[in-house]
Please model this.
Amino acid sequence: MAIVKIEKLSKNYQMGRLNVAALRDVNLTFEEGQYIAIMGPSGSGKSTLLNLLGCLDRPTGGCYYLGKDDVAQMEDDELSMIRGQRIGFIFQSYNLIAQLNVIENIEVPMYYQGISARKSAERAKELAELVGLGDRIDHRPSELSGGQQQRVAIARALANDPLILLADEPTGNLDTKSGGEILHLLDDLNNQGKTLIVVTHDAQVAKRAEMVIHLLDGTVERIERNSKGN
Amino acid sequence: MTWYRLRQTIKLGAKSLWMHRLRSTLTALGIIFGVCSVIAMLAIGEGASQEAQDQIARLGSRNVIIKTIKPPEEERADVQGARLQEYGLTYADAEQFKHTIPDIQVVVPQRRLMQEAWYLNRKVAIEVIGTIPWYTEIAPVDIRQGRFLESADLKYRQKVCIIDEEIFNKLFLFDDPLGADVKISGDFYRVIGIVSKVESASENGASEADSSGQIGGVAGNVYIPLTTAKQRFGEINLQIGTSGQNMEKVELQQITIQVKKTEHVLPTVEILNNLLSRSHKKKDYQIVVPLELLRQAAQTKKIFSIVLGSIAAISLLVGGIGIMNIMLATVSERTREIGIRRALGAKRRDIIFQFLSETVMLTMAGGLLGIVLGSLIPFLVTHFASMPTIVTGSSLILSFGISAAIGVTFGIYPAYRAAHMDPIESLRHE
Model:
């Protein structure tokens, strides 16, 4: 079943008097449980596509079906809802909230969905254990290593059981060892059925995906398919 | 917005305020001092006007007081040798008032003389007030023992007197005063009653403008029948000065009129002015209208409150602007956090609510502290400067309400700014 379906998606930016097309007529379809990597040099439209997939931005034209709904031209409040319910973000720089401890950081997305305190605390604890941080639930982000912080971010991304996990250079700020651990954790999640979209310029990361989308100048240059489990 | 989310928001707000304790405190100082000054100023203003109003109210709001004053031209025409000056209010005036003015409740003529009272070997300076039984209607005298004057006392010119508590304390100490004889100006008067001391402003005013021109510093009042006063003290007052002997003839020092209702006061004053200007060629009287004084005092209080209120309001405004300034800085400092929250599903109104609640919490905490300090200052003022102050409940509620309102007013713009930042830009913010 197609979980993400993009048709003729385009995005133009107005830069001074110039109208720059960042994405032109992109068509993509992702199935549930797929592991997708998006690659491309800078300026290829990677970030634009990521922002559109993450519902942080609205396209100039085209359709974007996330689940059953076309989210392309939704209102700001509806997009907030979609982001909270259907998308799990994993950022390069983790983006944890400094004042909050591990549990509280994992709880943030659930808080905006109005999940009760008891339920969300329970779920946050489960997720912390799932990513291997069961013994650090009351630590602040500043008291954790980079790899640990990214684990918290992954747990937070899973909080509302989203349709897709959207990772932007998830290992970009990590050393090889902890980066490898994070990639392993993502593999595990994918094996459990999570749909995973990773934006990267690291070929080692992309190698793990079953589908690699190469972008160039705002269009899909080619789609590379690996056999799953590589 | 569920109760849970409200609680979480408050918890979160308190947490981030607590993380920046120093900044929060400094920010709240504007509100603390603003609220503090509102309460302290209102309390001092209220206290001062209450005192003035109490003083005037003791004169009686339905009373009109007419006093004898020495006409100015008489003083200039002071020539060598003995001469008789005749001026002031008369018994005829009192009779005329009684018969010509409508809506009158009672007319109380008074003779007032500075004297000394003796009991055994003790002496005290007093003001003798020769009056009629209805004096109790126009002045707040409470009878503590015995009785006040009665018609029979006047009819038979009884040599009886009623003393006030102050004189009782000075002359009698532990003796029973009722039935004792007090010597005033060579005559003995039997004490028939003790009343509370009247500290009305009329006494103070009278002693200055009093025709008898005696030395002040009296301990209290002694009331005797008006008829007795006329018989025993006469109406001629002899003064021996460097320029020779001076004789003054004054029948009554004061006439107090009480009307039936307060709305009758002003028409009555008009009639009085008419009557007196016709019967008195010289301006040897003065009309005091406590009600008018009361109105003036109320007006003064209103102006006072407005002036003080505006000063305090300006300081609150300055505090509010300070808060807005800091909140704008906080918002830009937390741009990234806002971006994260937006990416994780926060709606614009969630962000607005988060920052607004932080501001309101800050100002309300400041308001509470201000109330505590503001209630303390009037207490200290009363204690050290012995000025009366009144902290009214309404001023507390008002200033707390204002501080909450300032939180909302000056918090809304920073919160709006926070909510309308582009999530993509915010996430990139370092």
Summary: Chain A has seven helices and ten strands. The helical segments of chain A are 46-53, 76-86, 102-112, 117-130, 146-158, 176-191, 203-206.
